[in-house]
Amino acid sequence: MVQRAFKAAVRASGLTKRATCHSLRHSFATHLLQDGYDIRTVQELLGHRDVATTMIYTHVMNRGGLGVRSPVDRL
User: Fold this and answer.
1) Within 13 Å, how many C-alpha atoms sit on residue 27's CB side?
2) Local structure of 74: helix, strand or coil
3) What is the pLDDT of residue 72?
4) Tens-place pLDDT, residues 19-70
5) What is the DSSP string of 5-66?
């Protein structure tokens, strides 16, 4: 039921890129990592046995020096 509704929503939105319910899982993991959650937490939430599987999501994290936040930034 959820998959049908999601497919209909994607079709209605006019998206040309393929999107599935599984896309939401990838988005969830990516946003967790971008928000600073550690890889082991994400691994546990996704139910991956091997952290190497979770490491796939880190490819979007290659931000170079701009990705480093100073502790002062949190004040």
Assistant:
1) 6
2) helix
3) 76
4) 998 888 888 988 888 888 888 999 999 999 999 888 888 876 665 555 566 6
5) HHHHHHHHHT--S---HHHHHHHHHHHHHHTT--HHHHHHHHT-SSHHHHGGGGGGG--GGG
> Look-up: residue for tokens 């931000």?
63
> What's the token pair of residue 46?
């996704």
DSSP three-state, residue 44: helix
pTM: 0.66
Q: Say what the alpha-carbon torsion angle 66, 62, 32, 20 is, to the nearest 10 degrees.
A: 130
- Give the whole-angstrom CA distance, residue 62 versus residue 37: 15
Burial label for 54, CB within 10 Å (0-12, 13-18, 19+), is: buried
